[in-house]
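Customer escalation, tier 2.

The customer says the design service returned an amino acid string that "doesn't look like it belongs to this structure." They asked us to rerun it and document both sides in this ticket. The original structure tokens are below, unchanged.
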């Protein structure tokens, strides 16, 4: 068997030439064991051969520096390389067959959402569910040493692949694959889940129109208890009692409080607010005939509070909309009717 390796010294080269000439007379056949090594990430193992007078280990045909013992330690960083050893007995050198050191490679674990669908998704990817919704998370890609966390803290007893979520927070999980149970991998992301009370639509007056908020495309207006055909915002032609039934995904349908409309009755000026420019690209000016001291809230189309604050005894007050996403919003105050505003980009 030919030994064709580059040696660093002339004496070593001479030794190999002598060994090559003597190979045919060697009566030993070194082998490396184990010959089916597959390492987990960050794992080490030991290769060994039979007893001999001298040894030199090789990795991918290149001599391993100072590797002249009966054993050789390898690690997962050696995965994909071939190893052999030249063993010398009574001056006769023989090289073993090469063995492959392989390694396991794993994709990150993942989480699947099962159960009820979220009522809506927030701007940062938050999942909002109605109270009482069944939220089921399933961890995939790992089966051993599983641990779920909530807000970065370990959830006691949550060590299975399934987790039923019952409270708000940021969820994550980690675990190891079956063949390498001690190689712990994290999902790598936080899964934000929040529960909200059942959503009830609210009817508001916008000038001569009636509208409802938060908006959903699944709605039905009723006039004196009878369904009517109308848009989300419409101009009523008769006085009476109006309600709207709105179906919000994940929460089911709900009915607004009745809105009693008497045509021709003008609201008192003190109850009116005006917002301009509307729509806005940067800031709203809110005007009132009397100084405003109420708290205010800005709600998005899903009914979530995006901004809130308090007016500082002003009749021409500013509300910053610079960082808001484009779309409709509802401005609510303590003692005035809500005002529908829009942001455009």
């Amino acid at each position: 068997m030919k030994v064709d390796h580059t040696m660093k010294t002339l004496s070593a080269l001479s030794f190999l030439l002598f060994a090559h000439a003597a190979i045919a007379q060697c009566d030993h056949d070194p082998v490396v064991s184990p010959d089916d090594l597959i390492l987990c990430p960050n794992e080490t193992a030991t290769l060994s051969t039979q007893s001999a007078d001298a040894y030199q280990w090789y990795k991918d045909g290149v001599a391993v520096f100072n590797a002249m013992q009966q054993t050789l330690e390898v690690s997962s960083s050696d995965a994909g390389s071939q190893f052999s050893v030249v063993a010398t007995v009574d001056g006769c050198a023989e090289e073993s067959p090469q063995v492959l050191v392989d390694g396991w490679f794993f994709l990150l674990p993942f989480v699947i959402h099962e159960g009820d669908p979220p009522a809506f998704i927030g701007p940062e990817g938050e999942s909002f569910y109605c109270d009482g919704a069944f939220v089921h998370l399933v961890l995939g890609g790992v089966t051993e040493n599983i641990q779920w966390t909530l807000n970065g803290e370990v959830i006691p007893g949550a060590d299975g692949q399934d987790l039923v979520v019952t409270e708000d927070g940021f969820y994550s999980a980690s675990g190891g694959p079956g063949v390498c149970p001690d190689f712990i991998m994290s999902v790598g992301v936080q899964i934000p889940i929040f529960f909200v009370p059942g959503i009830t639509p609210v009817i508001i007056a916008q000038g001569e129109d009636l509208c409802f908020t938060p908006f959903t495309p699944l709605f039905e207006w009723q006039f004196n208890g009878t369904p009517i055909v109308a848009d989300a915002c419409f101009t009523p032609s008769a006085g009476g009692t109006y309600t709207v039934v709105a179906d919000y995904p994940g929460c089911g349908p709900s009915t607004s409080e009745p809105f009693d409309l008497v045509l021709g009755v003008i609201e008192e000026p003190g109850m009116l607010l005006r917002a301009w420019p509307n729509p806005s690209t940067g800031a709203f000016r809110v005007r009132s005939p009397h100084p405003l001291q109420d708290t205010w809230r800005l709600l998005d189309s899903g009914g979530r509070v995006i901004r809130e604050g308090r007016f500082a005894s002003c009749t021409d007050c500013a509300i910053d909309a610079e960082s808001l996403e484009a779309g409709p919003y509802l401005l609510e105050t303590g003692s005035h009717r809500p005002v529908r505003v829009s942001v455009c980009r």
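Tier 2 assessment: The sequence is consistent with the input. Helices lie at 10-22. Confidence is low (pLDDT under 50) at residues 1-24, 264-270. Sent an explanation to the customer and offered a walkthrough call.
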